[in-house]
Amino acid sequence: MRGARQKTWSAGRPNGFGRRTSRYSPIRSAAEARTRHYPRQHPSRKTPMPLVRSLPCLVVALALLFPVAASAETARLGDADRAAIEEIVRDYIRDNPEIVLEALHTLEERHQAEAQAEQRAAIEARRAAIYDDPDDYTYGNPKGDVTIVEFFDYTCGHCRNSFQPLMDFVDADGNIRLILKEFPILGPRALDAAKAALAARKQGRYLEMHRAIFEHQGQLTEKALMEIAAKAGLNGPKLKKDMDDPKLMEVFSRHYALADALGIEGTPAFIIGGELLPGAVDKDRLTRVVAEARAAR
Fold it and tell me: Could you tell me which residues come within 8 angstroms of residue 136 by beta carbon, excluding any fewer than 6 positions away?
């Protein structure tokens, strides 16, 4: 899947996507989580189209547009024949330079199709981990005809921007199941916020804490999290104690491993209708993607 991931993302990172720059192996302890390097979030950026710098690359690209069946005669071409063919190709490219971009576009489309097929297969192979983890909070209609799964980080600005449009869309639709997977990848404060949200489930107030964290203006320091918890109606001392439960790290470790297997490299990332959808969402994007998922059923 690693090669497929590179193909999928190389076409241009979507807008509204906070990317991690190093891969995470499963975290097994709070100490490890706090000492591990966390990348800074950075804006999405387009990756320029690769430049073709040699005749062999051009020949490979052009072969996509002009497939020729291999034969024993072709394999036995001498140096003189090969040189003549290369000269023909060179002249053709010189007279029709746009063919290079067309060939590269065709190659990129094939890579994208291959990567998407591999990604769909990876999602299908991990259905239980994606859709049936009892430690994930489920919102909306538990029997909805479409399921949205979100991987998010509380310190990710794009996740914050997606929060209210996503909740409003699920509420208005009435037939969507939303599964929330904490994916704290942007720093120790992100990890603490995720622990606070999961710990709030023991007091039956996960959703209140989830909402309050995203609505908070400012840094998510330990003091801020306790103030947020109080506003969300939580018992602060109990929450702080529950945040030290080792089981929380096990949940995050599963989420890291799952994201790695699916090729998720940043936040937010959504799975809708069995398709991976990276980047921030708004009402229009959700409407389109959910409609496509329903049409494909």
Answer: 179, 180, 181
